[in-house]
Specification:
The complex is a heterodimer of chains A (118) and B (416). Chain A contains 2 helices and 6 strands; from the N terminus they run E-E-E-H-E-E-E-H. With 118 residues, chain A is α+β, with helices and mostly antiparallel strands. Chain A has one domain: Folate-binding superfamily (Folate-binding fold). Chain A has a 4-stranded antiparallel β-sheet, with no helix packed on it. The two termini of chain A are 17 Å apart. The two termini of chain B are 41 Å apart. The chains are: A alpha+beta (118), B alpha/beta (416). Chains A and B meet through strand 3 and helix 1 of A and helix 8 and helix 11 of B.
Chain lengths: 118, 416
Amino acid sequence: MFHIYCPYCAEYREEEEFHPKGQAHIARPADPTATSDDTWGEYLFFRDNPRGVHHELWVHAVGCRKFFNITRDTRSYAILETYRMGDQPSVTAESMILAERDAECGVTSTATMQGVPS
Amino acid sequence: MQRYSGFSLVKHALSHHENWQRHWRNPTPKKEYDVIIVGGGGHGLATAYYLAKQHGITNVAVIEKGWLGGGNTARNTTIVRSNYLWDESAALYEHSMKLWEGLSQDLNYNVMFSQRGVLNLGHTLQDMRDIQRRVHANRLNGIDGEVVTPAQIKEIEPALDTSERARYPILGASWQPRGGVARHDAVAWGFARGADARGVDLLQQTEVTGFKILDGKVVGVHTNRGDIGARTVGCVTAGNSGVLAKMAGFQLPVESHPLQALVSEPLKPILNTVTMSNHVHGYISQSDKGDLVIGAGIDGYLGYGQRGSFSVVEHTLQAIIEMFPMFSRVRMNRQWGGIVDTTPDACPIISKTPVQGLFFNCGWGTGGFKATPGSGNVFAWTLAHGQAHPIAAPFSIDRFRTGALIDEHGAAGVAH
């Protein structure tokens, strides 16, 4: 069971209040009529589906009903950050690799819990 | 291969069953094979079996990172049926059903295929319209099926609450008598034994870490046990298909989700058949051991963790109690999750890829087990001929660009 921090309600709520809505940051082709079938098909159906860090869209369905983003590890299911629509993630697959490297070198990392006040 | 029979059982009884052959060898990888199959689950092993048996291609390796049949083959609810709505999927699943019907004899291995019938319940007028449409479509495609009334359902499955008191009263069902269940492990082991006996190398504890691609053509794979060459590679890796596609440099229209199932403590025989309900959203059958085998929906989020949310377990059991109030005090014994590769149209992908010689058989989502023999059969043909088997042709990856989707969502047993 996830305990999800809604960036609009500014509270932790239970998973059952939310619905996942798939991969985030997919830009709709600006001019659909001028878009090829290939590009349109890729926009609609083709996904990263990573085994690791994933940026995904969620909706606080029975709360504020707003959409927002979660960065989550699809292996451990750990929620790394939540952030509002229009914002960019501060935790990415690349930053996680760097954070792991730092941790191995004994440097304290702050990258993993940004945007999730406890 | 040592054949199994009543006679061999008696013969080995005389030596206290200590001299049975191992099911398969544990070979060292060769430098090069004609065909490499990535993924040693039911579908991959079936592919290897049919490649060797029907196409005479025996210089084949099945590469499995864990152990044979240890993924979704070991994590499903073993339901077999072929009552799909659209012609394309009906052809594929019925092809599989026909293979199931002779599979134990073909493999000389008891896969415990039990055609105890499958009920798909309807609880609303729209459910019943959809059921009638699907049953009629099935019959036009030569697939058995009939629409049954609550009174007939009561005769088929007396434990089911067919009264009008239910929160979602049962208005009727589709009934496929040839549907049923099979023993999941035996399916993987039977195909593995049959493939091994024909010379296929089953390489366990061998993980593919990348593809060797030259001028857009696949020439082999990198593994944790060294490089292995092959001009034809078939990937049958279910939930990990997206990860392998990324290694080969392209994306798939696939998302991986956890799908859970659970079994109860063993009970005396109580269920005659397989019961599925789309509307209250659960499905149940009873194994030969006596456990109630229960499943329902996927978790909506992406996940590779082979476990799911407790809220899904709760919803699943609510559905089961709605259908079978008498199970309210049955205790659950075990729960597990598999990673299913779902496609936007809930139909599989059996297809060429942008890399020449590299084929994918994936996207089976929540219902791959029933297709194991058929999937392996048409994929073996596809690998042997370098082009899609006629039954597999509509399941090309191109359909997500042309728009020729096969929308099976409404016809699936439950709404995933």
